[in-house]
């Protein structure tokens, strides 16, 4: 049985945007290594390319390539402030489906771990459509702009969460934030801060499973937040791109995530 | 927010995008601040042809900042030994190091005002305006 959430941006506001705003600095301290596919995509761009990082979070992809110019955006002001420190790029607060940019004008876009936070197929396709609409169309022998879209996979039976094709695709995922305790032994704290160094890990850090290993749940000084996710099935991202008038150029699976590179149809 | 950003910003409202009045956005009550950015001649060379020069000139004049009326040619950016010229350094300073830290950006089509606080521009719209 699927727990289909209500068709509403209020729902996303409560279960995505407000959560990120509150966990921003904690979330950011766990997000500093780029995923290989994203890094490869950004490094493959010609120098001087101009593009977008839509849902940039703390801006960890803004340090990959300084020879391109990226306008990064996120709904969270707190995350955007952190992202804005990466030169020579720019960061602003905006919504994926109402970005303040001219259509058909950018060489590239990345949207990493963003589309899966939208709670209906229509909204996910609308988001993909609005990302593709910002890319240059093919003309005068120059190919169209390209977007890399990256979403969490349902098929991740080897991950700590263990979901697989039989599970619900619409889930609320807990994020447990520990408040600083002054007398915490130093070695424990450093263990926490390095828990996330594996760049291929997706949503690790201090979540429920981890905590149960180090102590009783719901101990004081912890706060649990839930974020909504739609977990993508094999082939579903490509379908959404096609529905959004996109052309899939390449796609694949990278450690618990589906990704695709797409262009707008000419 | 560095001035270069403004070259790539329009009103976020869908109904404004087709209007030439929605670009560029007009700074209002802007507070400016300078922040160092590493100089890159290649970055500057690459970005200049992508700028809507007339719009940038208009913006700069609204902010009482100097920008030449025509785009500098590539040859004006570097001298002997590929040393950056003063005009390249000035452009870098203007486009990348000059920031709007507070104020508003106003759409010339619908009049909507987007706030800039602590250097961050906010383009979130109330649901009925998207
Ligand atoms: Zn407008």
Automatic annotation (TrEMBL), chain A:
Residues 180-189 have a biased composition (Basic residues). SUPFAM superfamilies: S-adenosyl-L-methionine-dependent methyltransferases (SSF53335). Residues 190-205 have a biased composition (Basic and acidic residues). Residues 52-132 form the Methyltransferase type domain. One of its GO terms (biological process) is tRNA wobble uridine modification. Keywords: Methyltransferase, Transferase. Residues 174-220 are annotated as: Disordered. It holds the Pfam family Methyltransf_11. GO terms for molecular function: S-adenosylmethionine-dependent methyltransferase activity; tRNA (5-carboxymethyluridine(34)-5-O)-methyltransferase activity; tRNA binding. The keyword Transcription regulation does not apply. It comes from the Eukaryota. GO terms for cellular component: cytoplasm; nucleus. InterPro entries: AlkB_tRNA_MeTrf/Diox, Methyltransf_11, SAM-dependent_MTases_sf. The keyword Heme does not apply. This is Uracil-5--methyltransferase TRM9. The lineage of its organism: Eukaryota, Fungi, Dikarya, Ascomycota, Pezizomycotina.
TrEMBL record, chain B:
Gene3D superfamilies: 2.20.25.10. GO terms for biological process: rRNA (guanine-N7)-methylation; tRNA methylation. Transmembrane segments: none annotated. It holds the Pfam family Trm112p. One of its GO terms (molecular function) is protein heterodimerization activity. InterPro entries: Trm112, Trm112-like. PANTHER family: MULTIFUNCTIONAL METHYLTRANSFERASE SUBUNIT TRM112-LIKE PROTEIN, UPF0315 PROTEIN-RELATED. Belongs to the TRM112 family. This is Trm112p-domain-containing protein. The lineage of its organism: Eukaryota, Fungi, Dikarya, Ascomycota, Pezizomycotina.
């Amino acid at each position: 049985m699927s727990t289909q959430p209500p068709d509403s941006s209020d729902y996303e506001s409560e279960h995505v945007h407000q959560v990120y705003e509150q966990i921003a600095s904690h979330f950011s301290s766990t997000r500093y290594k780029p995923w290989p596919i994203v890094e490869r995509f950004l490094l493959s761009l010609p120098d001087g390319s101009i593009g977008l990082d839509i849902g940039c979070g703390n801006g960890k992809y803004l340090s990959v390539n300084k020879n391109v110019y990226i306008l990064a955006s996120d709904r969270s002001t707190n995350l955007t402030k952190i992202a804005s420190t990466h030169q020579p790029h720019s960061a602003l607060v905006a919504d994926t489906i109402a970005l303040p940019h001219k259509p058909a004008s950018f060489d590239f876009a990345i949207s990493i771990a963003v589309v899966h936070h939208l709670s209906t197929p229509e909204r996910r396709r609308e988001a993909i459509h609005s990302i593709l609409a910002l890319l240059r169309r093919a003309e005068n022998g120059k190919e169209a702009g390209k977007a890399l879209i990256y979403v969490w996979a349902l098929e991740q039976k080897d991950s700590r969460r263990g979901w697989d094709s039989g599970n619900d695709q619409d889930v609320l995922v807990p994020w447990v934030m520990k408040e600083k305790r002054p007398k915490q032994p130093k070695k424990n704290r450093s263990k926490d801060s390095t828990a996330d160094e594996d760049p291929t890990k997706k949503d690790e850090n201090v979540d429920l499973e981890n905590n149960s290993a180090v102590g009783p749940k719901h101990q004081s000084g912890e706060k649990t937040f839930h974020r909504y996710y739609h977990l993508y099935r094999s082939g579903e991202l490509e379908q959404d791109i096609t529905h959004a008038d996109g052309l899939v150029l390449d796609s694949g699976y990278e450690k618990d995530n589906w990704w695709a590179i797409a262009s707008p149809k000419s | 927010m560095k001035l270069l950003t403004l070259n790539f910003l329009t009103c976020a409202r869908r109904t404004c995008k087709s209007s030439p009045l929605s670009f560029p956005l007009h700074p209002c009550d802007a507070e400016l601040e300078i922040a160092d950015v590493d100089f890159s001649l290649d970055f500057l060379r690459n970005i200049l042809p992508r700028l809507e020069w007339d719009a940038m000139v208009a913006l700069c004049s609204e902010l009482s900042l100097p920008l030449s009326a025509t785009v500098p040619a590539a040859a004006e950016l570097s001298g002997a030994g590929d040393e950056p010229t003063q005009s390249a350094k000035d452009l870098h300073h203007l486009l990348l190091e000059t920031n709007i830290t507070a104020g508003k950006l106003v759409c010339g089509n619908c009049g909507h005002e987007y706030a800039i606080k602590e250097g961050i521009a906010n383009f979130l719209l109330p649901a009925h305006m998207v």
